[in-house]
Amino acid sequence: MTLPLALTMGEPAGIGGEIALKAWLRRAAGIPPFYLIDAPERLAKLAQNLGLDIPLRVIDKPERTASIFSDALPVSPLDDTPTARPGHPEAADQALVLRAIDNAVADVIAGRAAALVTNPINKDALYRAGFRHPGHTEYLAELARSKHPAVMMLSSRELRVVPVTIHMALRAAIDTLTSEAIVHVGRVVNDALRSEFAIPAPVIVVAGLNPHAGEAGGLGREDIEIVAPAVAALRDAGIDARGPLAADTMFHAEARRGYDAALCMYHDQALIPIKTLDFDGAVNVTLGLPFIRTSPDHGTAFDITGQGIARPDSLIAALQLAAEMAARRNRR
Fold first, then answer.
1. Domain containing 21 — which CATH number?
2. What distances in angstroms separate CA 7 from CA 85, 118, 139, 286, one per listed residue?
């Protein structure tokens, strides 16, 4: 029996519920079966407000998803209902947001679900409720008891990018960047490309930190002293890593045909090109965990929540990629 995907509620004041409902409506287009960990009362009211005719079916265990999915959206119920209004997150709801993630991770680790797909959360609301992690990625790594930092990849049909430093100020990213961190990310990405993306001989390019990769030290020595040694170490480990390269010439169409993933030194260096190329279809993938996790590559979209105009494309891509990656991992 093919296991279903576990989909979390995400921030209830955002568009997560809407795009989950709309993803189920497109189930005939090859979307893998999933169940949503959420509050059934919230979903029923949301569907009614959006004018969506979607039957919901509460399930007591994920295994029931397969027999239900074609006729109704399976919902694994939370023990309370969020109170937030569209676009207005409540700190009091954040315990439920985390409980949905906790339940999904427990299901995946126990083998009741094939992979985890998470709807967007709101970090500010979580921080106000006492959340102490930078984001989803770090929280999932703790739940998985990972010994090494997890790695965030953004993947689309056009491009795969991986930021070495993630959610931190640019000054902090520069100060914390190390050769060891780049090597760790490169190793994790290489392994994932082979095992979960079925690429037998991956090519990984590494962006320089400074403009023009530092101009031989004229625009900063970080690329000579930090990035280049990391690339050399990856090559010594048998990984086809190339760089440091000037980031401003790495992402045009011809350049992209020459590699399978790009390692970037900071958040926007990675996310600007992929969101420009495929804003609606890119997927956030967490690598280095004992389970598969994907997410839409967008936020909670408070500016449009409740209006019925949110597009489910990135969530659908996340569901499809999670199922593909899980199937490849299981074939190893």
1. 3.40.718.10
2. 21, 6, 16, 15
Surface-to-core class of residue 81, CB atoms within 10 Å of its CB (0-12 exposed, 13-18 middle, 19+ buried): middle
Q: How far apart are CA 247 and CA 229, in angstroms?
A: 18
- What range does the domain containing 124 cover? 1-148+291-332
The conformational region for residue 123 under phi > 0 = left, psi -120 to 50 = alpha, else beta, is alpha
Same domain, 316 and 236: no
Same domain, 8 and 140: yes
Which residues face 243 on adjacent strands? none
Summarised one tens digit per residue, pLDDT across range 212-226 is 998 999 999 999 999
Q: pTM surpassing 0.70?
A: yes
Q: Are residues 266 and 298 in the same domain?
A: no
Q: Which of helix, strand or coil describes residue 169?
A: coil
Q: Are residues 256 and 217 in the same domain?
A: yes
Q: How far is CA 315 from CA 138, 165, 248, in A?
A: 21, 24, 29
> In angstroms, rounded to a whole number, what is the distance separating the alpha carbons of residues 161 and 183?
15
Same domain, residue pair 116 and 10: yes
Strand partners, 117: 7, 294
* Domain assignment present for 105: yes
pLDDT tens for each residue of 79-120:
999 999 999 999 999 999 999 999 999 999 999 999 999 999
